[in-house]
Amino acid sequence: MRLGAARKWVQRFTDTVAAHYYGADVKRLRAAVIGVGYLGKYHAQKYAALPDVELVAVVDENLPRAQEAAREHGCRAVADFHAILGATDIVSIVVPTEQHHAVARACLEAGAHILVEKPVTRTLEEAEDLIRLAAAQGRVFQVGHVERFNPAVLALQEVLRDPLFIESYRLASFKPRGTDVDVVLDLMIHDIDIILNLVRSEIKDVRPIGFPVLTDEVDIGHARLEFANGCVANVTASRVSDKALRKVRVFQPDAYLSIDLHNPKFVCWRRLRDGAGAARLASEEKAFPPTDLLLEEIRAFVAAVRGGTAPVVSGSDGKRALEVALRISAGMGQTWPLPEPGA
Ligand code: NAD
Fold first, then answer.
1. Residues with CB under 6 A from ligand 1
2. What is the pTM of this model?
3. pLDDT tens digits, one per residue of 115-130
4. Is 138 left (phi over 0), alpha (psi -120 to 50) or beta?
């Protein structure tokens, strides 16, 4: 079978599947991914796997990169994102962060719903501008805080009640990718977003500390966040660790909750009393099969667009996480760089 005929067959097959699941009159959403580098190529794969979506174009200013992804999915390869404006319903924006605002603004103005990777933008003003524009255009603006779709986080949310104390650890081995920003905007911002979603209270005080180790930016950092309702969160992130670890622990009046986000698992310890009134601890554990978090995130984006509902992670959520991350980063401006060897 020639390539063109094979593509038409796949198209007819996915149309049939879409009609089966969503009804014959459902319109497939036309999707595009702008920026198909390390992460964007996975966004393209997920759209291509959804029966009610048609991936119409992949865009990258590095045209061979776009062409490679386009060959894989049988869609258009484009170098300049302006060429697809008006020709798509939904767009993932996976270009470097300093370009999120300009690209997202143009997509919104052209009437597209947008999923913007994290951190949402470089500045709070840029984020605010996109939030206003998305609201004025009546378009969904979702931010790529993918851990919100982690089954361990969802299990934690189900039993969460008045957290008193939270600690999070996100440790990763060193990779040169992403090191144009510090570890707070690179990694810690995932946990900041999770914690802000768990503790619905304003932040009263931020005490950060961090050190550059292998780059010119802070590579290992810690912050103590104090909330107006009294909750305290200790957040630690490192990208120069010898092992990968992603954990959040929550202490609340009736339980101690611990989640592993890396190998998704949830443990809940509760204090019980026996017949004689003596206290003892009882635990309940749930492990989860590997989950494709990005696929869940993109499915949720598509569902918000179809249903005209608020996205799970809104532009405002992205702005709030950015605001706290920038506050932590700024406080780390007065850091304690490691002495040069031999100094
Ligand atoms: P990358 O450098 O690998 O890819 C970015 C791509 O965008 C490149 O191929 C580049 O050629 C292309 N590009 C740049 N400007 C463009 C433009 N104006 N038009 C079209 N293409 C353009 O970067 P990455 O690691 O994939 O990161 C991209 C974004 O995703 C960043 O915002 C980053 O913070 C975020 N990210 C999020 C996570 C997560 O866990 N959610 C993980 C990694 C990266």
1. 34-40, 59-62, 65, 81, 94-97, 99, 103, 117-118, 144, 146, 177-178
2. 0.91
3. 999 999 999 999 999 9
4. left
